[in-house]
Amino acid sequence: MLAVLAGEAFLADKPWSEIWWGRMQLDLASGWQLQINIDRDRLGALLWARSPDGRDWEYGCQRDDWTLGPDSRIVEPVALLEPEQREQLERLLRDAICWPAPLVTCGWVVPMGNVKPSPYARRGGRRQVHRPVTSAGRGKSGRPSKTGSPVPTPL
Fold first, then answer.
1. Per-residue pLDDT tens digits for 93-111
2. C-alpha–C-alpha distance, residues 35 and 59, integer Å
3. Max CA-CA distance within the chain?
4. Cβ pair 98, 13 in contact under 8 A
5. Nearest residue to 44 via CA among 30, 52, 34, 53
6. Which of 43, 153, 155, 29 lies closest to 93 in space, CA to CA?
7. 35 within 8 A of 47, measured Cβ to Cβ
8. How far apart are CA 34 and CA 94, in angstroms?
C-alpha cells in the first residue's frame, strides 16, 4: 500500500467508476497483487495480497495478539494508514489506469498480439444441413455409400 502511495506504477482490473460495491484488483510494477474492497463508493479493507515470490496474505489471517482469543483485533493495512494517506490512496485508485479490455468478451479471451485466423475456420464454406433419409431408409438415390456397404450409414 505504501508503495502505491510512494508512486509505484500499477494497473487495475477495472475502473473505480464501474465499482460501487465490489473489489478492485491491482497489479503493481514490483510484482505485488492486491485486492481492495470498495464499499458504497468508498475505500474499504485490503482483502488479500500476493507477493512476487508467491506468498499470500488474506484479510482476517493476522491478529494483533492471538493470545487474546476472540478479543484480538484483525490487522488490516488500510486501517493502519493515516487519514491523509487513506484519502490520497482513494484518489489514486479513482484515477487508476486499467488493463486493456480483452478482444473477445463472450467467455473466451483472445491473447493480445498478432491474432491470425485459423486456416480451418471456414473450410468448405457453409456447414451442411442434415438431410433426412428417403425411400425406406436407403438414402439419396444415385449416391454410393461412404463405406461401400448397401446398408445405410448411421448418422
1. 999 988 876 555 555 555 5
2. 10
3. 88
4. yes
5. 34
6. 43
7. yes
8. 15
Closest to 39 in 3D by CA, of 23, 27, 28, 58: 23
Residue 34's H or E segment, with its range, is strand 33-38
pTM exceeds 0.70 for this model: no
CB count within 10 Å of CB 75 equals: 15
Q: Which three cell numbers stand for residue 31?
A: 510484482
- CA distance linking residue 149 with residue 131, whole number of Å: 19
Beta bridge partners, 150, equal: none
Three-class SS state of 25: strand
Mean pLDDT by 10 residues, the chain (155 residues): 89 91 93 93 92 86 70 81 94 89 57 54 53 54 59 58
For residue 38, report the phi and psi dihedrals to the nearest 5 degrees: -110, 120
pLDDT at 1 (0 to 100):
78
Collapsed DSSP state (helix, strand, coil) of residue 3:
helix
pLDDT of residue 83: 94
Distance CA 51, CA 75 (A): 18
Rounded to 5 degrees, what angle do the CA atoms 125, 128, 129 make?
Answer: 145
Q: Grid coordinates representing 104?
A: 473477445
Alpha helices in 38-125 (DSSP H): 77-80, 83-94
